[in-house]
Amino acid sequence: MSEATHEQVNLMLKLYDLRREAKLREARDWFAANFHVKNVDEFMKLCPPGSQPNTYFRMVVGYWEMVASIVNRGLIDEELFFENSGEQWAVWQQVKALIPAWREMFGSKHVLANLEKQIIGLEAWREKRDPGMNEKMNKFFEQMQQQAAKTRAASN
């Protein structure tokens, strides 16, 4: 087990406090309930520029990209972070299908690259710690997505 410093623990707690900020919590709730897009066209329909959904999307994804850049640089002990945070994985699952198109549109391979790198590390850490967990998490996430789609269809 690695040793986190007091400074790293305090930064981790600060990041947790930021997640609890009212607007970011509202954005995270919206994201979890509503962001189920498969392509850029669906994204633009759900989150047009200047809309509240676009703001919420940018808040959530921007937060996790920032946190990933902090963790990837070793400013927070990776194991400590992975033991205490998994929401970024769910966010990545929601956006990863869009990444190739965004990277091409913006002409940058670095679009959400910090988050992607962190998710690769998280999944490797998980698999080492609990072999087979990633497969189970992926299945669980797919089931949640299917249920969310059924719920949305029933409410329309």
Number of E-state strands: 0
Given the helix and strand composition, which structural class is it?
mainly alpha
Q: Kindly report how far apart the N and C termini lie.
A: 49 Å
Rg from alpha-carbon coordinates:
16 Å
Oligomer: single chain
Structural account:
- By secondary structure, the chain is mainly alpha-helical.
- The protein has one domain.
- The chain has helices spanning 6-19, 22-34, 40-46, 52-72, 78-84, 87-95, 99-106, 113-129, 133-155.
- Helix 4 crosses helix 8.
- The protein is globular, with a radius of gyration of 16 Å.
- The model has no long low-confidence stretch (mean pLDDT 93).
Q: Key features?
A:
9 helices; mainly alpha; 156 residues
Quick overview:
The protein has one domain (6-148). Helix content is 76%, strand content 0%.
Blueprint of the fold:
Blueprint: H1 6-19, H2 22-34, H3 40-46, H4 52-72, H5 78-84, H6 87-95, H7 99-106, H8 113-129, H9 133-155
Helix pairs in contact: 2-4, 4-8
